[in-house]
Amino acid sequence: MKFLFDLFPVILFFIAYKAADIYVATGVAIAASFAQIGWLWFRGRKIDTMLWVSLVVITVFGGMTLILHDEAFIKWKPTILYWAFAAVLLGGMLFMKKNLIRTLLAEQMELPEVAWSRLNWSWIGFFLLMGVANLVVALNFSTDDWVNFKLFGATGLMLVFVLVQGVLLSKYMEEKK
Fold first, then answer.
1. In whole angstroms, what is the distance from residue 41 CA to residue 6 CA?
2. Using one digit for the tens of pLDDT, what is the confidence trace for 118-164?
3. Which terminal residue of the chain has fewer beta carbons within 10 Å of its beta carbon, N or C?
4. Half-sphere exposure (CA, 13 Å, Cβ side) for 88?
5. How far out from the chain centre does Cα 153 lie?
6. What is the 3-state secondary structure (H, E, C) of the chain?
7. How far apart are CA 128 and CA 37, in angstroms?
8. What is the pLDDT along the chain (177 residues), one digit of tens a residue?
C-alpha cells in the first residue's frame, strides 16, 4: 500500500497527461503532492523526509514549468530528485560517517556491516543511473515517451531493483523461531 501511496502523484500525473496535456498534468502532480502530505498530516502520521523533498522539487520544477510554459523543467524533476537522494546517501556516508540506508531500515532487518555498506552504495548507484536514464529519455524522446517511461519504465526499474536487493539480502536473513 505504501508503494501505491508513494506513486499517487505519478499515477495522477499520467492520467491527467493522457486526458489533457503536460501542463494540466503538472498542476495535478503538484496538487496531488500537497494532498498526499496533507493526508498524512491530518491522520497524524510521520511524513518521510523523502516526501518533503519530493514536494519541494515538484513545486519548484512544476511551478517553473507552469510559469514559463516550458515542459523541460518537469522533465528534469525526476533527475533532480534521484540525484538529490544519491547525494544525501553519499553525503551521509562521507560527511556524517553515517549509513542512512541503515538508519532507515535497521528496525526492519539485521545485516552485517559489509551488507549495509553494499546496500547503501547500490542505492547511490541506482539513483545516479536513474537520473541519467531519465535525462536520456527526456532529451531524446517525445513527451509521450517520457511520460510513459516515468510511470512504467522508472517504476518497473525501481521494482526490479528492490526485488534484486531482496534476493541478495536474503542470504543474510535468519529465520525467526
1. 15
2. 999 999 999 999 999 999 999 999 999 999 999 999 999 999 999 99
3. C
4. 15
5. 13
6. CHHHHHHHHHHHHHHHHHHCCHHHHHHHHHHHHHHHHHHHHHCCCCCCHHHHHHHHHHHHHHHHHHHHCCCHHHHHHHHHHHHHHHHHHHHHHHHCCCCHHHHHHCCCCCCCHHHHHHHHHHHHHHHHHHHHHHHHHHHHCCHHHHHHHHHHHHHHHHHHHHHHHHHHHHCCCCCCC
7. 26
8. 566 678 889 999 999 999 999 999 999 999 999 999 999 999 999 998 888 999 999 999 999 999 999 999 999 999 999 999 999 999 999 999 999 999 988 888 889 999 999 999 999 999 999 999 999 999 999 999 999 999 999 999 999 999 999 998 888 876 544
Question: What's the chain's length in residues?
Answer: 177
Instruction: Supply 139's cell numbers.
Output: 532529451
Quote the CA–CA distance of 138 and 144 in Å, as a whole number: 10
